[in-house]
Specification:
The protein has six helices and 25 strands. The chain is of the alpha+beta class. The strands form nine sheets. A six-stranded antiparallel barrel has the order 3-4-5-10-7-6. The longest helix is centred in the middle third of the chain and has 14 residues.
Length: 420
């Protein structure tokens, strides 16, 4: 407003002798009582003053009560420890097309070529380059055939996207052939509506997604077309009982063989820690092989206690077997905490100063180190003693993982350490 008043004064006529002189108007600049700024002034930008912070806190441990259960020996069925060789599950697979998608299918050439090939089976010839595949997705189809399943039976099928489809929700799998790993023999056919158990809602500024959109299943969507060959008894008249993963040991093999021989004298033998051989009597008819095997699998034995320590570094889970032991030794654990806070500040130039905004780095670094002393720990002869010794150390799960690994390397931990 002030420059405008000055301009008007400059353009006013020059007074002469005949025209009385008129005094110039008085310029008054008032001040706002609330902000303290003068009207017509430009307010300077407010500079940042908030600082970032970073903290590390270790919460106290939760005291867990001992769960109810039996502290003595347990017995399990032989069927819970072994699997019968020759009666394994078999996986069949194939490639299929999921149609009926609402613009969430593949956008590449492979999907368009697959559509052209599908139309060719119906005597319709189309150019793949002229097709759009937004409503179709190429998927990988799998199904698991249980041992002994007969043709005509149905099993579940699983489908998963192969290319860049965004969602399989609402789609239908076109008839797909599922073969063995060689691709030579068709063992099943899959088709039907795909169920994902997922949904997605999207707006301009937010998206909500539940479960996985590009993996789904078809309940009972695979029809078995061919029986997978299986053999219960080998040519030598032996049934092989192979141990399940992480349950193989010489102790378990001997105990199973002794339990079987206690009922069927001389029927079982253990030649290694991975399997037990069960002899089938020569005079036993073929229709009695299954009842004979079932009577063996229903026997109960006391499994050998495990001496493994399973550690999951991602989740901090530690699981110990009953036979884990700790020798006497010394241990210390120091705590090192590093806190770094980056709080860059922006310096704004004043109005009409033709300056530039500058970003000033600001870093706060704090290192806390706990001075821990070396401590003597006694040996642990039982699992309860192991738990008590480790709890006395007083560290969290993450530190406990490092301690167990170091104890295993030093020879204090008498167990097999498995890191997942």
């Amino acid at each position: 407003m002030l420059p405008l008043l000055l301009l008007l004064l400059q353009q006013s006529p020059t007074p002469d002798d005949n025209v009385p002189a008129v005094p110039p108007p008085e310029i008054v600049i008032t001040t706002s009582p609330a902000s303290g700024l003068r009207y017509g002034a430009v307010e300077a930008p407010e500079q940042p003053s908030r600082a970032s912070s970073a903290r590390y806190r270790q919460l106290p441990r939760t005291a867990l009560e001992r769960a109810r259960g039996s502290a003595g020996a347990i017995q399990v069925r032989i069927a819970d420890l072994v699997e019968v060789r020759g009666l394994e599950n078999n996986v069949i697979h194939g490639v299929g097309l999921v149609t009926g998608l609402s613009g969430t299918g593949d956008a590449g050439l492979p999907a368009r070529q697959a559509i052209a090939n599908l139309m060719l089976t119906q005597n319709i010839k189309l150019d793949a380059a002229s097709l759009t595949a937004n409503n179709v997705a190429m998927v990988w189809v799998e199904a698991t055939l249980p041992s002994g399943v007969k043709p005509g039976r149905r099993v579940d099928a699983k489908v998963s996207s192969l290319y860049d489809a965004e969602s399989l929700v609402g789609g239908t799998l076109v008839f797909a052939e599922l073969t063995d790993p060689s691709g030579a023999l068709v063992y099943g056919t899959a088709y039907g509506s795909v169920t994902t158990g997922a949904f997605s809602a999207q707006g301009e500024g937010a998206t909500v997604t539940k479960n996985h959109l590009t993996v789904g299943g078809i309940p009972l969507g695979c029809k078995v077309e061919r029986e997978v060959p299986s053999s219960l008894v080998s040519e030598q008249g032996v049934i092989y009982l192979d141990f399940q993963p992480n349950k193989a040991s010489f102790g378990n093999a001997v105990r199973i063989a002794e339990a079987i021989n206690g009922r069927y004298l001389g029927a079982a033998s253990a030649f290694d820690s991975m399997s037990v051989q069960l002899k089938v009597p020569k005079d036993l008819p073929n229709d009695a092989h299954v009842p004979y095997l079932n009577s063996v699998l229903q026997m109960r034995v006391e499994p050998e206690a495990s001496s493994r320590v399973v550690i999951n570094e991602r989740t901090g889970v530690i699981v110990m077997g009953e036979q884990v032991r700790i020798g006497r030794g010394a241990i210390t654990k120091g705590s090192l905490t590093v806190t770094i806070a980056e709080t860059p500040e922006a310096s704004q130039p004043g109005p009409l100063s033709e300056g530039q905004t500058q970003v000033l780095p600001r870093t706060d670094l704090l290192v806390d180190e706990e001075q821990a002393q070396l401590s003597i720990i006694n040996g642990a002869a039982t699992l309860n003693d192991v738990v008590e010794v480790l709890n006395v150390i007083g560290v969290g799960a993450r530190d406990m993982i490092q301690i167990l690994q170091a104890m295993g390397q030093s020879g204090m931990l008498h167990a097999e350490v498995i890191i997942q």
